Design the sequence.
């Protein structure tokens, strides 16, 4: 009975030691898993921050481009108004020149008729 009891105690002691070793290994793996999870979360946060910064930069560039397009459209509109005004002035000068030419020709004609008398 004593040999069986000693053998059982030895087997129980070996089982307990093996169980404690396994539990310690499980705790170690859990700690490593938590550390890896923290690293993954940190990396994901950095990637997300980078994406947000990239999106903000793209939005800023888009806004700047839109402002530039609006400015160019305004400049083109102003240029169109200047061209229209210039064309109106040219048309007005053309009429003035035509009237002046008509009056000059009329004066010449009157002078010729006066000289012919």
Sequence:
């Amino acid at each position: 009975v004593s040999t069986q009891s000693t053998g059982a105690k030895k087997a129980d002691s070996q089982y307990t030691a093996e169980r404690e070793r396994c539990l310690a290994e499980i705790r170690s793996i859990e700690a490593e898993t938590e550390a890896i999870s923290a690293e993954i979360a940190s990396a994901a946060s950095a990637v997300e921050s980078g994406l947000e910064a990239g999106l903000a930069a793209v939005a800023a560039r888009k806004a700047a481009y839109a402002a530039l397009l609006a400015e160019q459209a305004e400049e083109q509109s102003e240029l169109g108004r200047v061209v229209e005004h210039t064309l109106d002035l040219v048309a007005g000068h053309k009429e003035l020149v035509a009237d002046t030419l008509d009056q000059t020709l009329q004066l010449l004609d009157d002078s010729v008729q006066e000289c012919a008398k």
The helical segments are 2-116. The chain is about 100% helix and 0% strand.
